[in-house]
Task: structure prediction
Amino acid sequence: MEKKKNDQSIIYIIDTSAVLSGKPLPVDQHHCLTVEEIADEFSPGGSSWRMFQYLIEKGLNIHRPSSEAKKQVNQVVKKMGETHRLSKADRSVLALAFEIKTEKKEKAIILTDDYSIQNIASILHISTQSISQKGITKTFKWIRRCRGCGRVLSQDETICPICGSTAKFVVDKKTKKTKK
Result:
């Protein structure tokens, strides 16, 4: 397991996109974790599922984040308008990293190419490492806006109650990504 200068352990959290990348992951060299919901994102018997099973055999451990960590992550996800973009597995990955960082006081790095995960991780001050993509440089807050009249709608509204037009997601606010 890798150590930082202050002897803080580094734990890598593996997301679905990291497995799908097909690139080598450090499961036999570092402490790597994932969540049980990740398995549901692969078709049993498929090449990605077989890769996931191989990673487990090589040392990838499956953990379940606490309900409190999930609750806190879900609050940030909702606030940032990412509810529709993140799967249950994505939220669990974030919750596990958040729990490791806040409760266990260890350094968690999420291995992911998922920009929405990177967005929320940046807000939560959790490090991410891209596998195949460049990674985000700004964080986004998403809102629903009416296509017809431009009114800002709640995250749950898909039809504008004023003009009847459909809603679309737009970036409400961009901020420079915070350094971890």
Q: What stands out?
A: The longest strand covers residues 167-176.
